[in-house]
Amino acid sequence: MLNNSLTLENISKRFASRPGSTSQLQVLDNIQLNIAPGEFISIVGASGCGKSTLLRLILGLDEEYDGRILLDGKPIDGTGLERGIVFQDHRLFPWLNVEQNVAVALKNSPLSAKEKRDTVREHIELVGLQDFIDAYPHQISGGMAQRVAIARGLVNRPSVLLLDEPLGALDALTRARLQGELQNIWAKEKITMILVTHDVDEAVFLGDRVVVMQPNPGRIRRILDIDLPRPRNRSDSRFIALRDDVLSDFAELH
Amino acid sequence: MARAQTVAPEQYVPALPKGNVQRLPPAPTRPVRKVEVPRTWAWSSQLGDRALPWLLPLAVLGLWFLGVEQGWLSEQVLPPPAYVYETLSDLFASGDLWINAAASLQRVVVGFALGASIGVVLGLAMGLSKTIEDYLLPTFNAIVQIPVLAWLPFALLLFGIGEPLKYVLIAKAALVPITLCTLQAFHQAPKGLLEAGRAYGFSRWQSVIFIVLPAAVPTLFTGLRLGFTKAWLSLVVVELVASSEGLGYLIVYGRQLFQLDLVMAAVVVVGGIGLLIDRGFDYAERRLNRGRTPAAGRLS
Ligand SMILES: Nc1ncnc2c1ncn2[C@@H]1O[C@H](COP(=O)(O)OP(=O)(O)OP(=O)(O)O)[C@@H](O)[C@H]1O
Ligand SMILES: [Mg+2]
After folding, report:
1. How far is B287 from chain A (nearest CA, A)?
2. Which residue's CA lies nearest to atom 9 of ligand 1?
3. How close does chain B come to A135, measured CA to CA in Å?
4. Per the domain annotation, does A254 fall within a domain?
5. For residue A185, what are the domain limits?
6. Is 80 exceeded by the pLDDT of residue B12?
7. A149 and A167 share a domain?
8. A68 and A194 assigned to the same domain
9. Where is the ABC transporter domain (chain A) (predicted)?
10. How confident is the model over A25-64, as pLDDT tens digits?
């Protein structure tokens, strides 16, 4: 059993609004969240309310914040292979092809060369890009680049996976399929997933809980338990009720 | 090892549930429909593109012919092209051309190699350590403002008039752009990718080798090419001042005897060799960059 519980204790984050200036922009204000091992958390909230910033802190890229982030009860110290991410902006290496881009995540993995090659291939197949293994990032579409990024995020099998709008650029059909895949992998691997999305339907479909954030400063407005059996049915009346509930939060915010 | 999942490699289970995974259908491959381009049109435009770089040199050559024909300048000042060509073939036949070109090439190769290695090391050191950069860069920037010729009297005293003098001055010329471009490469390292590297547990060296340097290839090549151009230019200057062989020496010699055909011939050779080597760098860069296109485009 993996022990990958994540605790966010009073997280606050400020940015200097301009380099060198003393006035500060408060981006996160007192975020409190206990995430159980293997839980699926969806985060929704207006653009600019600090969702990506929060993921950066959890990943360990930015260590200047107030509060504590605990993984299995221990404060995180920088980045670690047990925490993976799919960045909002893909971040593919322009000089590497699709296969090499996915393999980058395994540079420091203990797997043998053959195991690496096999698992890279499998994950590329998972996102349906087997015919584009040799293509370079400038030769593929935005949605395909996003799928490469998803494959790269999954390939390392982190025990906590952070997903920053990973399906935003995809067509409805591909998106629905990849949502299903994410759910399968989550269920099979018992990994903790934190998914940031602008798609309320997606948030309710995948999350055990949906965290609604509100901006200026970014804080948690509400946390909804999604107590529906999986796989969920989007036309189920309870599903629709929960989704409308989250949507109404948005309507009030704007 | 910061890996929470302590799965021993031999117990490796594939991440994906085998069999019951509904895989995405393959993404559509490239469209196969080809657009027919009228043949003759494609041909002539291709020919036009190839001819473009030659238009200007040919025009200059034409002007040269015309000038000599019309007697705009006296033959002593502007020798006719045919005469220069004759001188060039004589130089070639007698072996003088080879002796002088070889002397110059040896100087530039040694000096450039010396300058490039020191430049890359200096640039790397400053790029890797902010402290070293803070110590060195201001002094470096001050020293590089001094032209080769200004160093000459001092360098003459220090190294004498022999080969080391030439190596050092050429090396110094090449070193400057190469150091600055290497340092630049570190300053321009793609931040987003460095962060991704950190997420995958890259060490400092892994970040340098797998992110900073590949991203720096175009900048490094710009440095090398600029460095070579500078080296080649200062070679001629150095040889003009102090030498008894080399292409620069041919130019001085020709000038002293007022044999402008010899000067012209030497100039043509200097330009030709410089161009060839520059093309070589260009080719090597394109080989290294094969497959990827630079993020930059060209305004069209
Ligand atoms: N490095 C930085 N320096 C200064 N301000 C920053 C920095 N990074 C983010 N911010 C600010 O923090 C706020 C939150 O940014 P963040 O990227 O976390 O938003 P987000 O919720 O992910 O938005 P979106 O949904 O559009 O991706 C924004 O107002 C942004 O301007
Ligand atoms: Mg964001």
Report:
1. 13
2. A53
3. 8
4. no
5. 1-16+23-82+159-225
6. no
7. no
8. yes
9. 6-240
10. 889 999 999 999 999 999 999 998 999 999 999 999 999 9
Looking at ligand 1, which atom is closest to the CA of residue A50?
Answer: 18
Domain co-membership, A59 together with A168: yes
> A65 and A166: one domain?
yes
Do A5 and A76 lie in one domain? The reply is yes
CB-based contact A64:A252 (threshold 8 Å): no
Does the Cβ of A47 fall within 6 Å of ligand 1?
Answer: yes
A81 and B2: CB-CB below 8 Å?
yes
Same domain, A8 and A72: yes
Question: Which pLDDT score is estimated for B150?
Answer: 83
Confidence of residue B8 (pLDDT cuts 50, 70, 90): very low
Domain presence at residue A248? no
CA A84, CA B196: separation in Å to the nearest integer? Answer: 10
Is B296 near chain A, with CB under 8 Å? no
Q: Does the residue A40 lie in any domain?
A: yes
| pLDDT value at residue A244 | 93
Domain endpoint, select from A123, A157, A191 = A157
A236, part of any domain: no
User: Residue A17 Cα, ligand 1 centroid: separation in angstroms?
Assistant: 11
Q: What integer pLDDT is reported at residue B57 of this predicted model?
A: 85
Q: What is the pLDDT of residues B120-169, one digit of tens each?
A: 999 999 998 899 999 999 999 998 888 877 888 888 888 888 888 889 98
Q: How would residue A195 be classed by pLDDT, with cut points 50, 70 and 90? A: very high
Looking at the fold, whether A146 and A181 belong to one and the same domain comes out as: no
**A225-235 pLDDT per residue, tens:** 999 998 899 99
Which fold would CATH assign to domain B73-289? MetI-like fold (1.10.3720)
Q: Are A64 and A173 in the same domain?
A: yes
Q: Decide whether any atom of ligand 1 lies within 6 Å of the A27 Cβ.
A: yes
pLDDT digits (tens, 9 = 90+) for B82-99: 888 999 999 889 988 899
Count of domains for chain A: 2
Residue with CA closest to ligand 1 atom 29: A48
Indicate which CATH number applies to the domain containing A203.
3.40.50.300
Q: What is the pLDDT of residues A106-119, one digit of tens each?
A: 999 999 999 999 99
Domain boundary among A125, A157, A189: A157
User: How high is the ipTM of this complex?
Assistant: 0.90
